[in-house]
Amino acid sequence: MGVSGAKIFMEKNPRLDELSLDEINAVLTHKWFLSEKACRDVGIDFALNDWFQNHSKRWRAEKMKADFEIQKAEIEKHKWFLSQKLGYDVGIQQAALDWIKSGYAEAWRNKSGPYCEKKDNKVKVGKPASNN
Known about the structure:
mainly alpha
């Protein structure tokens, strides 16, 4: 056997439907650039594999940094509103904890943050939609 006792972990490329909307957008943009460079459509599978193998780690690191900055700004806004409501400077830690406890963190993640949920807008084939 090749490697003694060590487990070799090969990261599996995700399918497009396993990615977040932001990741899908990055893959589609990457596909466009690859296709322009090749002067032909390179296909979504090739673009997805190339993006995952060569660009996804850096893209995700940059995305996490940007998301952190946006989240931090949201907490700072919450700090201001909470301080105005209570009549004193609550500080960033209390504001962050209140932001989480009040549900704003979850709402931010699900609506505009890094874990933005994909909406299931798939059209059902077979039954026509009724307007009743």
